[in-house]
Amino acid sequence: NKLYGVSKWGSGYFNIDEDGCITVEPCKDGARIRIIDVIEEAKKRGLRLPLHIRFQDILQDRVKRINEAFAQAIEEAGYKGQYQGVYPVKVNQMREVVETLMDAGEAYGLGIEAGSKPELLLALSIHKNGNRLLLCNGYKDDEFIRFALMGCKIGKKVVVVAEKLEEIKGLIELSKEMGVKPYIGIRIKLATRSSGKWATSSGEAAKFGLSTVDLLEAMNLLEQAGLKECVTLLHFHVGSQIPDIQVITRCVREGARFYAKLVRMGCPISYIDVGGGLGVDYDGSRSTVASSANYSLREYANTIVYGIMDICDEEKVEHPTIVSESGRALVAHHSMIAVEAFGRIAKLNTIKNLVVPKNAPKVVRDILEVKETVDAGHYDEAFHDLVFYRQQAMSLFDLGYLDLQSRAVVESLSWEILAEISRHYEGKARMSEEMKELVAGLKDQYLLNFSVFRSLPDSWALGQLFPMTPLTRLNEEPTIKGTIADITCDSDGKVDTFIGDGEDQDQREYLWLHDLNDKPYYVGIFLTGAYQDTLGDMHNLFGRMDEAHIVLDSDEEAGWYIDEIIEGDTIREVLEENEYAIAELIRSIKTQVEQAIKKDVVKPNEGMKILADYEAGLKRYTYLQVDSRRRL
Ligand code: PLP
Fold first, then answer.
1. What's the CATH code of the domain at 368?
2. Closest atom, ligand 1, to C-alpha of 278
3. Where does the Arginine decarboxylase C-terminal helical domain start and stop, copy by copy (predicted)?
4. I need a surface site. Which of 141, 258, 263, 455 has the fewest CB within 10 A?
């Protein structure tokens, strides 16, 4: 546990049992599921790895916890308004996720937020209760606004949140044209800036929101149009995953001040929408680094409730209903990916029982001397000498003066020397950048059957950290410091930065892994429920993974069951998605096989089998079939 920090990032949902297996406890009530059991059951049901596993109960638990945190803060503070959450559908638009959230949120009036026309059409249909909010964020054209007003017409509380002045003008015109009284929201730009990887939504240069000048202009226009009393909601959002609670404190106070001033100007605003930003502690460090958050859910709710109350009391205005648009904190925990290792590229690739002959080239003998320097404990000197002679050896090889055997000896000795230097400096701060770079090359690469581009786009694009652990053997000391390579033909398809131990290390350049044996070795990638599902792309044509949805059930012998299975993309599907006509592909192969038969390159029987295999191949999974007995 210490090596992987499970109890820190797991937020009570994940743990390790006495057999060294990762378990999940979706409701934190003692009912635990071993992830390896889920994998075995899924395999029995015909699912393959990589496998996307969703725990529906975690989604429900998240809804409950966020709502209860606000309810408690409101009660303790004596706040006179209420709390109503809204789920920003962009964070995970998958049907099962949205439906589960909407069901779980029924009791709390959880609304939905749409940021585009497709999301709005989805939200209009899925949002069935007139008291829940349906918020429209994002840039809007007339058609977008018309759809929103259509929702109002059929009795929904659809709030059009103006991101810029032109939208106010459109809204005035179209609400008149359609004869609908709109619910108007206004997004303001705060001067408070966020930090972390998603900070660009904040500050005066942000892409969305009205400046104070535009806000006053908007109020004038609405007053002239007789729509001032339709201004229902004030919104701000300074970015996702805000790591520092101080930023939230400042935003809330600045935003509440805007609210109070507008109310005092005669705007009947009844909702203050604090946007998203509630962080997930991906690395378990409870700090202000980008992959973490230095506050708890309870502290977050208190900060918002007390912050708004303070300003409202000071300004003597009513306490509004508090709305938050937390998506990440609702959905991140419920989903994980199980991947299988199918090989390891061992970097410490040395020649066993190496004997360097006396007549070996001088550069080889020089490097052998470096080995003696390092053995004598002169690490810095040995490192610099090694860099020098290694470079010399490579130049000699390039010019044709060094044979392959000598080059192999140079490489072998170099790895041995570097390994000793690295062992000496392990955990010590005194290591030059140059040294770090060379030593980093010593880590073994574990080859995992998945695509970073498909499954962890934020890791590839933003360097976001996701917790990873082997799913079994955690009662066995891992011996290998590895990095991860995926199966895309792209050197970017890797993970080489991992979460630290949640104590004195923010992050590490390696993951502790076990030596591979002839049994399958599974690694879990956790907290992947937010943004990753639909942001992922089809690089190398790796498609959607097989998916298993797990539900707790005390009536079941295991205490849980697979509620739903969604088969991942077949090769045929990813090709079709890229506009290939399958019939044409088959026809083309058929012609080529027929020609090969004509030229007597293959026998007719063989030709027919090739054709049949091709067609069968189109129905296969896009990922590798791993045979753990025959690893690379
Ligand atoms: N609301 C708006 C307007 C957003 O842009 C976002 C995402 O950036 C969210 C809500 C969701 O925020 P989070 O990812 O912090 O839950």
1. 1.20.58
2. 15
3. 571-624
4. 141
